[in-house]
Design brief:
heterodimer, A: 225 residues, alpha/beta, 27% strand, B: Alpha-Beta Plaits, 11 helices, 8% strand, elongated
Amino acid sequence: MILLDRVTKNYNKRGTALKSISLHVEPKEFVIIVGPSGAGKSTLLKLLTREEKPTSGKIIVGGIDYETLKDRKIPLLRRKIGVVFQDFKLLANKNVYENVSFALEVVGMGNKEIARTIPKVLDIVGLTGKELSYPSELSGGERQRVAIARAIARQPKILIADEPTGNLDADHAWDVIRVLEKINKYGTTVILTTHNQEIVNKLKRRVITIRDGQVVSDKAGGKYK
Amino acid sequence: MGRRLTGLRRVTVSGMKNFFRNSWLTVAATAVMVVSLTIIASAVVLNVTAKNAISELSKNLQISIYLKDSASQNMINQLTQDLKSNKAVASVTFVSKSDAQKQFDQTFQSDPTLVAGLQILGTNTLPASLEVSLTDLGQINQVGAVPNEAKYSGIVDSVTIGKTDVKKTIARAASAQHFITVASVVMAIIFGLVSMLIIFNTIRMAIFTRADEIKIMKLIGATPTFIRGPFLVEASMYGLIAGLISSGIVLAGIFSLGEKISNQAEFTKTYHYFTSAKIIAAMIIGLIVVGIVVGVFSSLLAMKKHLRLKTW
Protein backbone atom coordinates (compact mmCIF):
# COMPACT_ATOMS: atom_id res chain seq x y z
CA MET A 1 0.00 0.00 0.00
CA ILE A 2 2.82 2.40 0.94
CA LEU A 3 6.41 2.09 -0.19
CA LEU A 4 9.26 4.45 0.61
CA ASP A 5 12.62 3.66 -0.88
CA ARG A 6 15.64 5.59 0.41
CA VAL A 7 13.70 8.80 0.78
CA THR A 8 15.63 11.89 1.79
CA LYS A 9 14.21 15.33 2.44
CA ASN A 10 16.47 18.36 2.77
CA TYR A 11 15.25 21.81 3.68
CA ASN A 12 17.51 24.63 2.66
CA LYS A 13 17.38 26.38 6.02
CA ARG A 14 16.49 23.65 8.47
CA GLY A 15 18.88 21.05 7.19
CA THR A 16 17.98 17.39 6.61
CA ALA A 17 14.60 16.23 7.95
CA LEU A 18 14.70 12.66 6.64
CA LYS A 19 17.80 10.64 5.81
CA SER A 20 17.35 7.81 3.34
CA ILE A 21 14.24 6.28 4.91
CA SER A 22 12.86 3.02 3.54
CA LEU A 23 9.48 1.69 4.64
CA HIS A 24 6.82 -0.71 3.49
CA VAL A 25 3.25 -0.69 4.79
CA GLU A 26 0.85 -3.47 3.80
CA PRO A 27 -2.83 -2.83 2.98
CA LYS A 28 -5.10 -2.82 6.08
CA GLU A 29 -2.12 -2.43 8.39
CA PHE A 30 -2.23 -0.23 11.52
CA VAL A 31 1.14 1.46 11.89
CA ILE A 32 2.20 3.78 14.68
CA ILE A 33 5.06 6.18 14.07
CA VAL A 34 6.75 7.51 17.18
CA GLY A 35 9.69 9.74 17.89
CA PRO A 36 10.63 12.98 19.61
CA SER A 37 9.60 16.37 18.25
CA GLY A 38 11.61 17.32 15.21
CA ALA A 39 12.46 13.69 14.45
CA GLY A 40 10.87 13.94 11.02
CA LYS A 41 7.40 12.41 11.61
CA SER A 42 5.46 15.37 10.23
CA THR A 43 7.77 15.62 7.22
CA LEU A 44 7.14 11.94 6.51
CA LEU A 45 3.36 12.48 6.58
CA LYS A 46 3.64 15.58 4.37
CA LEU A 47 5.55 13.51 1.85
CA LEU A 48 2.76 10.92 1.87
CA THR A 49 0.06 13.55 1.26
CA ARG A 50 2.30 15.15 -1.34
CA GLU A 51 2.40 18.49 0.47
CA GLU A 52 6.16 18.15 0.15
CA LYS A 53 8.35 16.56 -2.48
CA PRO A 54 11.30 14.37 -1.48
CA THR A 55 14.78 15.59 -2.31
CA SER A 56 15.62 12.05 -3.44
CA GLY A 57 14.17 8.55 -3.24
CA LYS A 58 11.01 6.87 -4.37
CA ILE A 59 7.48 7.03 -2.91
CA ILE A 60 4.67 4.79 -4.15
CA VAL A 61 1.23 4.96 -2.49
CA GLY A 62 -1.70 2.81 -3.65
CA GLY A 63 0.14 2.06 -6.87
CA ILE A 64 0.80 5.74 -7.63
CA ASP A 65 4.43 6.61 -8.17
CA TYR A 66 4.90 10.18 -6.89
CA GLU A 67 7.82 10.75 -9.21
CA THR A 68 5.60 10.56 -12.27
CA LEU A 69 2.52 12.08 -10.59
CA LYS A 70 1.43 15.23 -12.41
CA ASP A 71 0.35 18.24 -10.31
CA ARG A 72 -3.16 18.15 -11.73
CA LYS A 73 -3.55 14.55 -10.52
CA ILE A 74 -2.70 15.45 -6.90
CA PRO A 75 -6.38 16.10 -5.96
CA LEU A 76 -7.21 12.57 -7.12
CA LEU A 77 -4.41 11.15 -4.95
CA ARG A 78 -5.63 13.15 -1.93
CA ARG A 79 -9.08 11.66 -2.33
CA LYS A 80 -7.53 8.27 -1.61
CA ILE A 81 -5.89 9.49 1.57
CA GLY A 82 -7.82 10.76 4.60
CA VAL A 83 -5.97 13.09 6.96
CA VAL A 84 -6.67 13.95 10.61
CA PHE A 85 -4.74 16.69 12.40
CA GLN A 86 -3.89 17.43 16.01
CA ASP A 87 -5.76 20.75 15.84
CA PHE A 88 -8.82 19.17 14.10
CA LYS A 89 -9.01 21.87 11.37
CA LEU A 90 -12.80 22.01 11.43
CA LEU A 91 -14.65 24.97 9.96
CA ALA A 92 -16.05 26.93 12.91
CA ASN A 93 -18.96 28.41 10.95
CA LYS A 94 -20.25 25.01 9.82
CA ASN A 95 -22.03 22.44 11.97
CA VAL A 96 -21.05 18.77 12.20
CA TYR A 97 -23.18 17.74 9.24
CA GLU A 98 -21.87 20.62 7.09
CA ASN A 99 -18.23 19.95 8.04
CA VAL A 100 -18.51 16.36 6.85
CA SER A 101 -20.68 17.29 3.89
CA PHE A 102 -18.10 19.89 2.82
CA ALA A 103 -15.53 17.13 2.21
CA LEU A 104 -17.99 15.26 0.01
CA GLU A 105 -19.13 18.36 -1.88
CA VAL A 106 -15.52 19.12 -2.76
CA VAL A 107 -15.19 15.80 -4.56
CA GLY A 108 -18.46 16.38 -6.41
CA MET A 109 -20.79 13.99 -4.59
CA GLY A 110 -24.50 14.66 -5.13
CA ASN A 111 -26.71 15.90 -2.27
CA LYS A 112 -28.75 12.70 -2.06
CA GLU A 113 -25.64 10.53 -1.84
CA ILE A 114 -24.24 12.89 0.81
CA ALA A 115 -27.46 12.58 2.81
CA ARG A 116 -27.12 8.78 2.69
CA THR A 117 -23.40 8.75 3.57
CA ILE A 118 -23.22 11.15 6.51
CA PRO A 119 -25.44 9.21 8.98
CA LYS A 120 -23.30 6.12 8.32
CA VAL A 121 -19.97 7.84 9.06
CA LEU A 122 -21.36 9.70 12.07
CA ASP A 123 -22.49 6.32 13.38
CA ILE A 124 -18.98 4.89 12.93
CA VAL A 125 -17.43 7.74 14.94
CA GLY A 126 -20.26 7.71 17.50
CA LEU A 127 -21.65 11.16 16.81
CA THR A 128 -25.20 10.30 15.78
CA GLY A 129 -27.49 13.06 17.05
CA LYS A 130 -24.77 15.74 16.99
CA GLU A 131 -25.40 16.70 13.34
CA LEU A 132 -26.51 20.25 14.11
CA SER A 133 -23.88 21.05 16.75
CA TYR A 134 -21.14 23.54 15.94
CA PRO A 135 -17.49 22.72 16.75
CA SER A 136 -17.52 25.23 19.62
CA GLU A 137 -20.30 23.22 21.28
CA LEU A 138 -18.33 19.95 21.20
CA SER A 139 -15.62 18.48 23.44
CA GLY A 140 -12.10 18.00 22.07
CA GLY A 141 -12.69 14.30 21.58
CA GLU A 142 -15.93 14.91 19.73
CA ARG A 143 -14.28 17.49 17.49
CA GLN A 144 -11.54 15.03 16.62
CA ARG A 145 -14.19 12.42 15.81
CA VAL A 146 -15.89 14.93 13.47
CA ALA A 147 -12.49 15.38 11.80
CA ILE A 148 -12.19 11.59 11.46
CA ALA A 149 -15.72 11.39 10.04
CA ARG A 150 -14.75 14.03 7.47
CA ALA A 151 -11.58 12.11 6.61
CA ILE A 152 -13.28 8.72 6.17
CA ALA A 153 -16.50 9.91 4.50
CA ARG A 154 -14.86 9.58 1.08
CA GLN A 155 -13.84 6.01 1.99
CA PRO A 156 -10.11 6.54 1.53
CA LYS A 157 -7.79 3.57 1.33
CA ILE A 158 -5.40 5.18 3.80
CA LEU A 159 -6.06 7.27 6.89
CA ILE A 160 -3.22 9.41 8.20
CA ALA A 161 -3.70 10.63 11.76
CA ASP A 162 -1.09 13.19 12.79
CA GLU A 163 -1.04 13.32 16.60
CA PRO A 164 -4.83 13.09 16.78
CA THR A 165 -4.78 12.68 20.56
CA GLY A 166 -2.23 15.42 21.20
CA ASN A 167 -4.82 17.91 22.49
CA LEU A 168 -7.07 15.42 24.30
CA ASP A 169 -7.32 14.03 27.83
CA ALA A 170 -6.87 10.28 28.36
CA ASP A 171 -10.57 9.29 28.06
CA HIS A 172 -11.17 11.29 24.92
CA ALA A 173 -7.87 10.10 23.47
CA TRP A 174 -9.00 6.50 23.83
CA ASP A 175 -12.38 7.31 22.22
CA VAL A 176 -10.48 8.54 19.19
CA ILE A 177 -8.10 5.56 19.12
CA ARG A 178 -11.04 3.11 19.32
CA VAL A 179 -12.62 4.83 16.32
CA LEU A 180 -9.34 4.48 14.42
CA GLU A 181 -9.19 0.78 15.29
CA LYS A 182 -12.76 0.33 14.08
CA ILE A 183 -11.94 2.03 10.78
CA ASN A 184 -8.87 -0.19 10.42
CA LYS A 185 -11.03 -3.24 11.04
CA TYR A 186 -13.24 -2.16 8.12
CA GLY A 187 -10.16 -2.38 5.89
CA THR A 188 -8.54 1.06 5.88
CA THR A 189 -4.77 1.32 6.32
CA VAL A 190 -4.08 3.58 9.33
CA ILE A 191 -0.88 5.54 9.90
CA LEU A 192 -0.87 7.11 13.36
CA THR A 193 1.76 9.38 14.84
CA THR A 194 1.68 9.96 18.57
CA HIS A 195 3.71 10.87 21.66
CA ASN A 196 1.36 8.96 23.95
CA GLN A 197 3.35 6.09 25.44
CA GLU A 198 0.34 4.43 27.05
CA ILE A 199 -1.60 4.28 23.80
CA VAL A 200 1.35 2.85 21.87
CA ASN A 201 2.09 0.22 24.44
CA LYS A 202 -1.53 -0.90 24.89
CA LEU A 203 -2.33 -1.05 21.17
CA LYS A 204 0.39 -3.62 20.49
CA ARG A 205 0.64 -2.73 16.81
CA ARG A 206 3.60 -2.26 14.51
CA VAL A 207 5.67 0.63 15.85
CA ILE A 208 8.19 2.55 13.74
CA THR A 209 10.52 4.78 15.71
CA ILE A 210 12.12 7.73 13.97
CA ARG A 211 14.97 9.72 15.43
CA ASP A 212 17.05 12.42 13.71
CA GLY A 213 15.38 11.67 10.39
CA GLN A 214 16.17 7.96 10.45
CA VAL A 215 14.23 4.79 11.28
CA VAL A 216 15.86 3.45 14.41
CA SER A 217 13.43 0.58 15.02
CA ASP A 218 10.51 -1.08 13.26
CA LYS A 219 8.78 -3.79 15.30
CA ALA A 220 5.44 -5.56 15.14
CA GLY A 221 3.66 -5.36 18.52
CA GLY A 222 6.34 -2.86 19.46
CA LYS A 223 6.61 -0.51 22.39
CA TYR A 224 7.44 3.16 22.87
CA LYS A 225 10.29 3.58 25.32
CA MET B 1 -21.98 15.37 -16.36
CA GLY B 2 -24.23 15.33 -13.28
CA ARG B 3 -21.20 15.74 -11.00
CA ARG B 4 -19.93 18.62 -13.09
CA LEU B 5 -23.28 20.40 -12.88
CA THR B 6 -23.41 19.83 -9.13
CA GLY B 7 -19.86 21.22 -8.86
CA LEU B 8 -20.75 24.26 -10.97
CA ARG B 9 -23.82 24.95 -8.85
CA ARG B 10 -21.79 24.67 -5.62
CA VAL B 11 -19.05 26.95 -6.94
CA THR B 12 -21.65 29.54 -7.99
CA VAL B 13 -23.51 29.43 -4.67
CA SER B 14 -20.26 29.68 -2.73
CA GLY B 15 -19.10 32.66 -4.83
CA MET B 16 -22.40 34.45 -4.30
CA LYS B 17 -22.22 33.86 -0.55
CA ASN B 18 -18.75 35.42 -0.52
CA PHE B 19 -20.08 38.37 -2.48
CA PHE B 20 -22.70 39.16 0.14
CA ARG B 21 -20.56 38.19 3.13
CA ASN B 22 -18.35 41.29 3.23
CA SER B 23 -20.86 44.00 2.42
CA TRP B 24 -18.64 47.09 2.82
CA LEU B 25 -15.90 45.83 0.59
CA THR B 26 -18.52 44.65 -1.89
CA VAL B 27 -20.14 48.10 -2.00
CA ALA B 28 -16.76 49.84 -2.39
CA ALA B 29 -15.55 47.50 -5.13
CA THR B 30 -18.84 47.74 -7.02
CA ALA B 31 -19.06 51.53 -6.66
CA VAL B 32 -15.59 52.17 -8.06
CA MET B 33 -16.30 49.83 -10.94
CA VAL B 34 -19.58 51.65 -11.61
CA VAL B 35 -17.66 54.95 -11.83
CA SER B 36 -15.09 53.43 -14.22
CA LEU B 37 -17.68 51.85 -16.50
CA THR B 38 -19.83 54.99 -16.50
CA ILE B 39 -16.83 57.06 -17.57
CA ILE B 40 -15.98 54.63 -20.34
CA ALA B 41 -19.58 54.47 -21.61
CA SER B 42 -20.08 58.24 -21.37
CA ALA B 43 -16.86 58.79 -23.30
CA VAL B 44 -18.08 56.52 -26.08
CA VAL B 45 -21.50 58.23 -26.18
CA LEU B 46 -20.01 61.75 -26.18
CA ASN B 47 -17.51 60.80 -28.84
CA VAL B 48 -20.16 59.40 -31.15
CA THR B 49 -22.40 62.41 -30.46
CA ALA B 50 -19.61 64.88 -31.26
CA LYS B 51 -18.60 62.97 -34.39
CA ASN B 52 -22.19 62.83 -35.68
CA ALA B 53 -22.76 66.48 -34.85
CA ILE B 54 -19.64 67.45 -36.77
CA SER B 55 -20.65 65.42 -39.80
CA GLU B 56 -24.19 66.85 -39.60
CA LEU B 57 -22.87 70.40 -39.35
CA SER B 58 -20.42 69.74 -42.17
CA LYS B 59 -23.32 69.20 -44.53
CA ASN B 60 -24.00 72.92 -44.19
CA LEU B 61 -20.47 73.74 -45.08
CA GLN B 62 -20.34 74.18 -48.84
CA ILE B 63 -18.37 76.20 -51.29
CA SER B 64 -20.62 78.24 -53.55
CA ILE B 65 -19.04 79.40 -56.80
CA TYR B 66 -21.21 82.09 -58.43
CA LEU B 67 -20.83 82.20 -62.17
CA LYS B 68 -21.02 85.13 -64.53
CA ASP B 69 -23.97 85.09 -66.94
CA SER B 70 -21.48 85.05 -69.78
CA ALA B 71 -19.74 81.87 -68.59
CA SER B 72 -19.36 79.28 -71.33
CA GLN B 73 -20.50 75.70 -70.72
CA ASN B 74 -17.05 74.45 -71.70
CA MET B 75 -15.31 76.43 -69.01
CA ILE B 76 -17.97 75.46 -66.46
CA ASN B 77 -17.35 71.78 -67.30
CA GLN B 78 -13.61 72.29 -67.02
CA LEU B 79 -13.97 73.90 -63.60
CA THR B 80 -16.30 71.08 -62.49
CA GLN B 81 -13.70 68.48 -63.58
CA ASP B 82 -10.95 70.41 -61.88
CA LEU B 83 -12.89 70.49 -58.61
CA LYS B 84 -13.82 66.82 -58.80
CA SER B 85 -10.18 65.84 -59.26
CA ASN B 86 -9.62 66.78 -55.59
CA LYS B 87 -10.32 63.80 -53.33
CA ALA B 88 -11.81 66.00 -50.62
CA VAL B 89 -14.69 66.98 -52.94
CA ALA B 90 -17.80 64.87 -52.40
CA SER B 91 -19.98 66.41 -55.09
CA VAL B 92 -20.27 69.35 -57.45
CA THR B 93 -23.81 70.41 -58.32
CA PHE B 94 -24.63 72.89 -61.05
CA VAL B 95 -27.47 75.25 -60.13
CA SER B 96 -28.72 77.12 -63.19
CA LYS B 97 -30.17 80.62 -63.08
CA SER B 98 -33.73 79.25 -63.26
CA ASP B 99 -33.00 76.69 -60.51
CA ALA B 100 -31.63 79.51 -58.37
CA GLN B 101 -34.83 81.46 -59.01
CA LYS B 102 -36.97 78.47 -57.99
CA GLN B 103 -34.90 77.95 -54.82
CA PHE B 104 -35.21 81.64 -54.01
CA ASP B 105 -38.98 81.60 -54.51
CA GLN B 106 -39.28 78.52 -52.33
CA THR B 107 -37.09 79.92 -49.58
CA PHE B 108 -38.87 83.24 -49.47
CA GLN B 109 -42.43 82.18 -50.30
CA SER B 110 -43.48 83.38 -46.89
CA ASP B 111 -42.18 86.82 -47.75
CA PRO B 112 -44.24 87.88 -50.81
CA THR B 113 -42.88 91.41 -50.67
CA LEU B 114 -39.37 90.24 -51.38
CA VAL B 115 -40.50 87.94 -54.20
CA ALA B 116 -42.63 90.72 -55.68
CA GLY B 117 -39.71 93.14 -55.37
CA LEU B 118 -37.52 90.82 -57.41
CA GLN B 119 -40.25 90.43 -60.02
CA ILE B 120 -40.33 94.22 -60.43
CA LEU B 121 -36.80 94.01 -61.82
CA GLY B 122 -38.32 92.01 -64.67
CA THR B 123 -35.35 89.76 -65.34
CA ASN B 124 -33.75 86.98 -63.31
CA THR B 125 -30.81 88.64 -61.58
CA LEU B 126 -29.75 85.57 -59.64
CA PRO B 127 -26.51 84.00 -60.87
CA ALA B 128 -25.97 80.35 -61.79
CA SER B 129 -23.63 78.57 -59.39
CA LEU B 130 -21.64 75.44 -58.64
CA GLU B 131 -22.33 74.04 -55.14
CA VAL B 132 -19.36 72.04 -53.89
CA SER B 133 -19.65 69.78 -50.84
CA LEU B 134 -16.65 68.24 -49.13
CA THR B 135 -15.66 65.07 -47.32
CA ASP B 136 -12.62 66.56 -45.61
CA LEU B 137 -13.12 69.94 -44.06
CA GLY B 138 -9.38 70.47 -43.71
CA GLN B 139 -9.22 70.87 -47.49
CA ILE B 140 -11.85 73.60 -47.69
CA ASN B 141 -9.49 76.51 -48.35
CA GLN B 142 -7.46 74.56 -50.88
CA VAL B 143 -10.60 73.60 -52.82
CA GLY B 144 -11.90 77.16 -52.47
CA ALA B 145 -8.77 78.45 -54.17
CA VAL B 146 -9.44 76.50 -57.41
CA PRO B 147 -12.14 78.81 -58.85
CA ASN B 148 -9.99 81.80 -57.96
CA GLU B 149 -7.30 80.69 -60.36
CA ALA B 150 -6.60 83.19 -63.15
CA LYS B 151 -7.90 80.92 -65.93
CA TYR B 152 -11.38 80.98 -64.41
CA SER B 153 -11.53 84.73 -63.86
CA GLY B 154 -13.67 85.00 -66.99
CA ILE B 155 -16.46 82.81 -65.65
CA VAL B 156 -16.32 83.16 -61.87
CA ASP B 157 -18.08 86.10 -60.33
CA SER B 158 -17.47 85.34 -56.66
CA VAL B 159 -16.71 82.46 -54.25
CA THR B 160 -18.28 81.93 -50.80
CA ILE B 161 -16.65 79.46 -48.49
CA GLY B 162 -19.18 78.23 -45.91
CA LYS B 163 -20.59 80.38 -43.20
CA THR B 164 -18.16 81.66 -40.60
CA ASP B 165 -20.33 80.72 -37.61
CA VAL B 166 -20.75 77.14 -38.85
CA LYS B 167 -17.02 76.85 -39.32
CA LYS B 168 -16.40 78.07 -35.79
CA THR B 169 -18.96 75.66 -34.34
CA ILE B 170 -17.36 72.77 -36.17
CA ALA B 171 -13.93 73.76 -34.94
CA ARG B 172 -15.25 73.96 -31.39
CA ALA B 173 -16.97 70.58 -31.69
CA ALA B 174 -13.82 69.00 -33.11
CA SER B 175 -11.67 70.36 -30.31
CA ALA B 176 -14.28 69.26 -27.75
CA GLN B 177 -14.26 65.78 -29.27
CA HIS B 178 -10.49 65.69 -29.02
CA PHE B 179 -10.64 66.81 -25.39
CA ILE B 180 -13.34 64.26 -24.56
CA THR B 181 -11.28 61.48 -26.13
CA VAL B 182 -8.07 62.36 -24.30
CA ALA B 183 -9.77 63.09 -20.96
CA SER B 184 -11.91 59.97 -21.06
CA VAL B 185 -8.99 57.70 -21.95
CA VAL B 186 -6.98 59.15 -19.04
CA MET B 187 -9.92 58.92 -16.61
CA ALA B 188 -10.85 55.42 -17.76
CA ILE B 189 -7.26 54.25 -17.22
CA ILE B 190 -7.06 55.83 -13.75
CA PHE B 191 -10.44 54.55 -12.57
CA GLY B 192 -9.91 51.21 -14.27
CA LEU B 193 -6.66 50.74 -12.33
CA VAL B 194 -8.26 51.85 -9.05
CA SER B 195 -11.13 49.47 -9.72
CA MET B 196 -8.74 46.60 -10.41
CA LEU B 197 -6.75 47.40 -7.28
CA ILE B 198 -9.87 47.35 -5.10
CA ILE B 199 -11.14 44.09 -6.54
CA PHE B 200 -7.65 42.62 -6.20
CA ASN B 201 -7.72 43.62 -2.53
CA THR B 202 -11.24 42.34 -1.98
CA ILE B 203 -10.36 38.93 -3.38
CA ARG B 204 -7.11 38.92 -1.41
CA MET B 205 -9.10 39.56 1.79
CA ALA B 206 -11.51 36.79 0.85
CA ILE B 207 -8.57 34.42 0.32
CA PHE B 208 -7.09 35.31 3.72
CA THR B 209 -10.46 34.98 5.45
CA ARG B 210 -10.95 31.55 3.97
CA ALA B 211 -7.33 30.40 4.35
CA ASP B 212 -8.29 27.45 6.63
CA GLU B 213 -11.09 26.39 4.35
CA ILE B 214 -8.79 26.53 1.32
CA LYS B 215 -6.09 24.52 3.09
CA ILE B 216 -8.61 21.83 4.03
CA MET B 217 -10.03 21.85 0.51
CA LYS B 218 -6.56 21.21 -0.89
CA LEU B 219 -5.93 18.37 1.54
CA ILE B 220 -9.20 16.60 0.91
CA GLY B 221 -8.76 16.58 -2.83
CA ALA B 222 -10.53 19.64 -4.22
CA THR B 223 -9.41 20.51 -7.73
CA PRO B 224 -7.87 23.96 -8.38
CA THR B 225 -10.96 24.83 -10.44
CA PHE B 226 -13.22 24.09 -7.46
CA ILE B 227 -11.09 26.31 -5.22
CA ARG B 228 -10.72 29.17 -7.71
CA GLY B 229 -14.31 29.01 -8.92
CA PRO B 230 -16.02 30.88 -6.06
CA PHE B 231 -13.52 33.76 -6.30
CA LEU B 232 -14.13 34.06 -10.03
CA VAL B 233 -17.89 34.02 -9.46
CA GLU B 234 -17.52 36.71 -6.78
CA ALA B 235 -15.41 38.91 -9.09
CA SER B 236 -17.85 38.36 -11.97
CA MET B 237 -20.69 39.51 -9.69
CA TYR B 238 -18.92 42.87 -9.26
CA GLY B 239 -18.69 43.17 -13.02
CA LEU B 240 -22.31 42.11 -13.59
CA ILE B 241 -23.84 44.44 -11.02
CA ALA B 242 -21.54 47.37 -11.87
CA GLY B 243 -22.30 46.84 -15.57
CA LEU B 244 -26.05 46.95 -14.93
CA ILE B 245 -25.88 50.03 -12.70
CA SER B 246 -23.57 51.98 -14.99
CA SER B 247 -25.62 51.21 -18.10
CA GLY B 248 -28.68 52.39 -16.14
CA ILE B 249 -26.92 55.66 -15.31
CA VAL B 250 -25.73 56.24 -18.88
CA LEU B 251 -29.11 55.37 -20.39
CA ALA B 252 -30.89 57.65 -17.91
CA GLY B 253 -28.51 60.41 -19.01
CA ILE B 254 -29.15 59.75 -22.69
CA PHE B 255 -32.94 59.73 -22.27
CA SER B 256 -33.16 62.78 -20.00
CA LEU B 257 -30.53 65.02 -21.62
CA GLY B 258 -30.95 63.61 -25.11
CA GLU B 259 -34.63 64.36 -25.27
CA LYS B 260 -33.99 68.05 -24.66
CA ILE B 261 -31.54 68.41 -27.51
CA SER B 262 -32.92 65.77 -29.88
CA ASN B 263 -34.93 68.38 -31.82
CA GLN B 264 -31.70 70.04 -32.92
CA ALA B 265 -30.77 68.73 -36.34
CA GLU B 266 -27.20 67.82 -35.44
CA PHE B 267 -28.32 65.57 -32.52
CA THR B 268 -31.52 63.96 -33.87
CA LYS B 269 -29.76 61.07 -35.59
CA THR B 270 -27.50 60.37 -32.61
CA TYR B 271 -30.42 60.40 -30.18
CA HIS B 272 -32.37 57.90 -32.28
CA TYR B 273 -29.23 55.80 -32.65
CA PHE B 274 -28.58 55.55 -28.91
CA THR B 275 -32.23 54.99 -28.01
CA SER B 276 -32.71 52.09 -30.43
CA ALA B 277 -33.28 48.72 -28.76
CA LYS B 278 -30.27 47.18 -30.49
CA ILE B 279 -27.82 49.79 -29.21
CA ILE B 280 -29.31 49.76 -25.69
CA ALA B 281 -28.90 45.97 -25.55
CA ALA B 282 -25.37 46.21 -26.96
CA MET B 283 -24.46 48.86 -24.38
CA ILE B 284 -25.77 46.83 -21.43
CA ILE B 285 -24.09 43.64 -22.61
CA GLY B 286 -20.88 45.50 -23.47
CA LEU B 287 -20.62 47.14 -20.05
CA ILE B 288 -21.36 43.88 -18.24
CA VAL B 289 -18.73 42.07 -20.31
CA VAL B 290 -16.11 44.79 -19.68
CA GLY B 291 -16.99 44.71 -15.95
CA ILE B 292 -16.69 40.93 -15.76
CA VAL B 293 -13.41 40.92 -17.68
CA VAL B 294 -11.91 43.55 -15.33
CA GLY B 295 -13.21 41.66 -12.28
CA VAL B 296 -12.02 38.25 -13.42
CA PHE B 297 -8.62 39.60 -14.46
CA SER B 298 -8.08 41.27 -11.06
CA SER B 299 -9.17 38.18 -9.16
CA LEU B 300 -6.89 35.97 -11.26
CA LEU B 301 -3.99 38.24 -10.32
CA ALA B 302 -4.97 38.08 -6.63
CA MET B 303 -5.27 34.29 -6.78
CA LYS B 304 -1.97 33.92 -8.57
CA LYS B 305 -0.26 35.93 -5.86
CA HIS B 306 -2.06 34.66 -2.76
CA LEU B 307 -3.77 31.33 -3.43
CA ARG B 308 -0.50 29.50 -4.05
CA LEU B 309 -2.10 26.64 -5.89
CA LYS B 310 1.24 25.85 -7.47
CA THR B 311 2.60 24.49 -4.20
CA TRP B 312 -0.19 22.01 -4.02
